[in-house]
């Protein structure tokens, strides 16, 4: 099973930017689908974006479309989440997750149960 470690979170003012990283160890991402989720206090964990490691196509939740961009660096076995124009409602713990390639071909929005490997999360706080 792949181990995932997130980094890059922090405190930023509204309108600012952050880039989160998710590094895999134990094995490469290979054919995985790699996703980002977030969980705000008192709320359920919600889908943010995902990328197909082998194909490279991406999908983003409507709430972040146009502001967040998921990408990957094959040489570093790393997936990124570039977050621009941050809003206070983006405040949450952000989690990286890896799952099977089949996630990428489904039309429905991925859920937490689709992913088998999770990182420990990184806190993002956006002040108003």
Q: What characteristic shape results from the CA principal axes? A: globular
Cα-atom radius of gyration: 14 Å
Low-confidence blocks of residues: none
Q: Quick one: biggest sheet? A: 7 strands, mixed
Number of helices: 0
Please provide the ordered H/E string of secondary-structure elements.
Answer: EEEEEEEEEEE
Characteristics of this structure?
128 residues, four-stranded antiparallel β-sheet, globular, single chain
How would you describe the overall organization of this protein?
It is a single chain. The chain is mainly beta and 128 residues long. Helices cover 0% and strands 48% of the residues. A hairpin with a 5-residue loop joins β5 and β6 (58-60). The radius of gyration is 14 Å and the shape is globular. The termini are far apart. The model has no long low-confidence stretch (mean pLDDT 95).
Summarize the structure.
This protein is mainly beta.
List the helices and strands and how they pair.
Blueprint: E1 3-7, E2 10-13, E3 18-25, E4 33-39, E5 46-52, E6 58-60, E7 68-73, E8 78-83, E9 92-99, E10 117-118, E11 122-127
Parallel strand pairs: 2-11
Antiparallel strand pairs: 1-3, 3-8, 4-5, 4-9, 5-6, 7-8, 9-10, 9-11
């Amino acid at each position: 099973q792949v181990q995932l470690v997130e980094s890059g979170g922090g405190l930023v003012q509204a309108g600012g930017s952050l880039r989160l990283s998710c590094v895999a160890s134990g094995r490469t991402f290979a054919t995985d689908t790699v996703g980002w989720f977030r969980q705000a206090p008192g709320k359920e964990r919600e889908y943010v974006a995902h990328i197909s490691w082998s194909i490279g196509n991406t999908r983003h939740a409507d709430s972040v479309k146009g502001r967040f961009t998921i990408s990957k660096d094959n040489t570093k076995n790393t997936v990124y989440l570039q977050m621009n124009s941050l809003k206070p409602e983006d405040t949450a713990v952000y989690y990286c997750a890896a799952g099977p390639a089949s996630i990428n071909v489904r039309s429905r929005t991925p859920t937490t149960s689709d992913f088998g490997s999770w990182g420990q999360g990184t806190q993002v706080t956006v002040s108003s």
